Amino acid sequence: MLDAGKTETLLEVNNIEVIYNHVILVLKGVSLAVPKGGITALLGGNGAGKTTTLKAISNLLHSERGEVTKGSILYRGERVQDLDPAALVKLGVIQVMEGRHCFEHLTVEENLLTGAYTRTDTGAIAADLDMVYTYFPRLKERRRSQAGYTSGGEQQMVAIGRALMSKPETILLDEPSMGLAPQLVEQIFEIVKAVNEKEGVTFLLAEQNTNVALRYAHYGYILESGRVVMDGPAKDLRENPDVKEFYLGMSDEGRKSFRDVRSYRRRKRWLA
Ligand SMILES: Nc1ncnc2c1ncn2[C@@H]1O[C@H](COP(=O)(O)OP(=O)(O)O)[C@@H](O)[C@H]1O
Ligand SMILES: [Mg+2]
Which residue intervals define the domain ABC transporter in the entry (predicted)? Predict the structure, then answer.
């Protein structure tokens, strides 16, 4: 079990600002710490800045005309802002992109093997393929199928499995629940948990689905409009009245003046 008091911080994001197209300020000073061996959730609604934060970490913003203009990003204490994504993979950090992105014309197995492209220990790759298949038996059944013809859930499994094939220390997982039926979401999160516990892989996962993410994560950060507005152990966030009201859709106050209460409380807390 993760012991926050003793664990080393693997990834540290310090007060970063991200601007798109030289003018659009999207992240307005985001800081977060990802402890080794933990599952950390980055929560928030659509457009809050979750994907931008993950892409800033894995240096994928350039292709979108985005830039980190302030702050620093450290991995094991080392500045990683100027590394290209392949160098970051070598350091042990890999991102699973939002929307899955398989190579549709390759088979499931060929897709998984592309994840090992930076590795030189070819002998161990077959063993790791078996490891991936133990977590995703479904992918073993489908290994000769063309990835483009597999279901959304299977493609999400392929995307995570491919990341595992790079032997990562840390996986940045963007919106794994997106577009999947609740049962499948649960299955994916169970696998994330198992990989975390048994392989010791550290996760930073971005999720709009606060409910499921806070049940599996150890710690959470809530982003709103490019700022962290709240953070804490997942258990505390789950029990926090504002989180319940804003993100979990549970409120003791009823729905009558939901909007008013919400904007009032937000103004009071975030801006006062
Ligand atoms: N390439 C881009 N160019 C300009 N604005 C962008 C770009 N990508 C995202 N944004 C804007 O940045 C904000 C945060 O987006 P994003 O990081 O994708 O949020 P989330 O992943 O939390 O839904 C949104 O307002 C979005 O419109
Ligand atoms: Mg996103």
Answer: 11-250
Q: Which domains does the chain have, with CATH numbers?
A: 10-92+168-271 (3.40.50.300)
Nearest CA to ligand 1 atom 6: 20
Residue ID of nearest Cα to ligand 1 atom 13: 47
Per-residue pLDDT tens over the stretch 92-107: 999 999 887 789 999 9
Confidence of residue 130 (pLDDT cuts 50, 70, 90): very high
The residues near 46 (Cβ < 8 Å, ≥ 6 apart) are 208
CA distance 203 to 192: 8
User: Residue 128: what pLDDT?
Assistant: 95
For ligand 1, is residue 48 a contact (CB within 6 Å)? Answer: yes
pLDDT at 264 over 50: no
- Tens of pLDDT, residue by residue over 180-233, are 999 999 999 999 999 999 999 999 999 999 999 999 999 999 999 999 999 999
Return d(Cα 3, Cα 180) in angstroms, integer: 32
- How far is ligand 1, taken at its centre, from the CA of residue 51, in Å? 7
Nearby residues of 70 by Cβ (< 8 Å), 6 or more positions away: 15, 16, 17, 29
176: Cβ below 6 Å to ligand 1? no
Contact 189, 216 (CB under 8 A): yes
- Average pLDDT estimate for 47-63: 95
- In angstroms, the Cα distances linking 160 to 82, 84, 102 are 25, 21, 10
End-to-end CA distance of the chain: give it in Å, rounded. Answer: 38
Ligand 1 close to Cβ of residue 182 (< 6 A): no
Cα–Cα distance for residue pair 187/191, rounded to 1 Å = 6
Q: Which residues surround ligand 2, an ion (CB under 5 A)?
A: 50-51, 98
